[in-house]
Amino acid sequence: MNFLNQPPRFLFFTGKGGVGKTSIACATAINLADDGKKILLVSTDPASNIGQVFGVKIGNHITPIETITGLCGLEIDPQAAAQNYRDRITAPVRGVLPDKTVKGIEEQLSGACTTEIAAFDEFTSLLIDADITKKFDHIIFDTAPTGHTIRLLQLPGAWSDFLEMGQGDASCLGPLSGLEKQRAQYDAAVKTLADETKTRLVLVARGQNSAIKEAARTQAELAAIGINNQYLIVNGLIQEQDIENDTIARSIFLREQKTLENMPSELDALPKDFLYLMPMSMVGIESLRLLLSGRVVTYSNVSPVSLAGFKELAVSLLVEEISQDKHGLIMLMGKGGVGKTTLAAAVAVELANRGFPVHLTTSDPAAHLTETLQGAYNHLTVSRIDPHLETLKYQKEILATKGAHLDDQGRALLLEDLRSPCTEEIAVFRAFSRIIKEAGDQYVVMDTAPTGHTLLLLDAAGAYHKEVARQLEPKHAHFTTPMMQLQDSKRTKVILVTLAETTPLLEATNLQNDLRRAGIEPWAWIINNSLAASSPTCALMKIRAQNELKEIAAISKTLATRYAVVPLYEEDPIGVERLHALIQGVLPPH
Asked: What's the confidence (pLDDT) of residue 146?
């Protein structure tokens, strides 16, 4: 393995959810411990649970893994760290400021940036405090800070004055107000990250376009701030020898090979390794040892998998229920790579096929609706909101208003804040809000929607809901804002899209909780690309299908009031005919 060739003291594994970061980090820890090294394995990933992987309780303290000589674990709880942040910042103003103002501050500090910076605050000592870590030869981190977080930590000390003067009230500088350690410690930690003699950063991806694009984005973002000590692992690839006569497995294999052939040049230039799809879950020491061993796993006499006993709906029944309303807003939400764009297009096509006027829109830069639809269709209008252009427009507006009277340093700080992921969501939602009102007369189907955090951030700041309420005179008391429409289940139906895999399911669950905090109740779930619903024939895929049943059971029993399962098909559903067939549950061959 290239990434294990003369490894430095610190190893970071990063990548989008569901690519296998935790499994690879755990397998690396075992590999190095088996070589006689003393290892500390640290998790800062909300979706990670290294204790569960090893079958022991770890938590937020260094804990020996007794079954592996020389290995210890530590789980930094980023949510707990973020809550401590919020408590530190809001405690002095509770009872002093109005409750609504305090709630606004809390919401401002509830986003991903706060969680990531709080986690960085927690593990900084592991990078620079020799007394804590001196007995370990290697420290392995499951999840690394993003380039955006590192840029924030590199900002000049003036950010504190900027906040205290009330000029930095946007989404991302706010978390910095909770930092209590000396800035010198953060400078030392960032220098350690950039030092190739001390640190190696491993990008983890899958053989899928969305995962490769995310890895390429991360590579460029980190390289731009001087972190070039990067390696690449493409995980979970299907080997041709495992395909047998399974047409679905062969189709996946060919798609993966095409993705690898078209890998961006900057990513392709990195030292890289390829890991292959394993039949078993990566839980337990022996399974983890196999992951990096290169040994061939054999299996036989695997029983077919069935969804008998589950009470899932056909997607066609979901659309049938939606069609009873005659108009409305349909929002498909979920993390990247779960198939939102295809399902949004399929729902829109099915509603248009029934004669309803439909506006299908997306803000996903990776979405290619015209390619998915392959031509025009009666009653269907298609649009795409460009997140980059909308963000530039929003940044320009904020700099022209809030930044108009700032000095150069203040404007630089405000501009850095406007580079946060929250800014893009706010800018895109402003564009979406212009389309939402159309849902009173027709169907509007949205692919990629703002999170509950962004909606509450807008609401707390008075950008939409409260702003409209303030500006209207009492005699004009009847009004509907975008936020109110999203909260109205008669006007809006939110459909969460996920895969029957641990990390995508956890992310969808967190998204549901996030939306509920904003007063938005998801209407249905769709479990997409399910092997368990595809009747696979090769042993590898049958075992993987068996593993899905636990996730499907969790959705059916505790998470969703209604849900549908969409099989993994041999070919992508492209073109109106195949999108219509996807809704009906039978995809024709090419």
From this structure: 67
CA 343/CA 495 separation, integer angstroms: 10
Q: pLDDT tens-digit profile of 441-483?
A: 999 999 876 666 566 655 654 444 444 454 444 545 444 567 7
The CATH superfamily of 315-386+441-450+480-584 is: P-loop containing nucleotide triphosphate hydrolases (3.40.50.300)
Report the mean per-residue pLDDT for the chain.
Answer: 82
Query: CA geometry: angle at 218 spanning 252 and 253, to 5°?
Result: 10
CA dist 175 and 107 (Å) reads: 11
Q: CA 265 from chain center: how many Å?
A: 24
Q: Where along the chain do the CATH 3.40.50.300 domains lie? A: 2-291, 315-386+441-450+480-584
- Given a contact cutoff of 8 angstroms between Cβ atoms, the answer to whether 70 and 301 are in contact is no
The contacts of residue 39 (CB under 8 Å, 6+ apart) are: 29, 32, 33, 70, 71, 72, 136, 137, 138, 139, 140
User: SS3 string of 482-529?
Assistant: HHHHHHCCCCEEEEEEECCCHHHHHHHHHHHHHHHHCCCCCCEEEEEE
Percent of the chain exceeding pLDDT 90 equals 32
Residue 313, class by beta-carbon neighbours within 10 Å (0-12 exposed, 13-18 middle, 19+ buried)? middle
Per-residue model confidence (pLDDT) at position 497 = 95
Q: Which two tokens stand for residue 289?
A: 């040892």
Average pLDDT over residues 80-99: 79
Tokens of 550: 């636990």
Give residues with Cβ within 8 angstroms of 92, minimum separation 6.
none
| Beta-sheet pairing, 443-447 with 39-43 | unpaired
- Give pLDDT tens digits for 293-309: 876 677 777 888 888 88
Residues 563 and 503: their CA atoms lie apart, in Å, by 18
C-alpha–C-alpha distance, residues 175 and 159, integer Å? 11
Q: Is the distance from CB of 201 to CB of 271 less than 8 angstroms? A: no
Which CATH number does the domain 2-291 belong to among 3.40.640.10, 3.40.50.10490, 3.40.50.12160, 3.40.50.300? 3.40.50.300
Report the predicted TM-score, pTM, of the whole model to 2 decimal places: 0.79
Give me the torsion for CA of 398, 404, 405, 406, rounded to 10°.
Answer: 60
Q: What are phi and psi of 303, to 5 degrees?
A: -75, 150
Mean pLDDT of 199-220: 90
Contact 563, 315 (CB under 8 A): no
How many whole angstroms separate alpha carbon 325 and alpha carbon 490?
Answer: 8
Range from 169-183, 211-225, 226-240, 468-482 that averages highest in pLDDT: 226-240
Q: Are 456 and 517 in contact (CB under 8 A)?
A: yes
Active site residues: 18, 20-23, 45, 503
Cα gap 67→541, rounded to integer Å: 31
Q: Identify the pLDDT of residue 452.
A: 63
| Rounded to 5°, angle at Cα 533 from 527 and 539 | 120
Whether the per-residue pLDDT at 502 is higher than 70: the answer is yes
Cβ partners under 8 Å of residue 53, min gap 6: 22, 23, 26, 282, 283, 284, 288
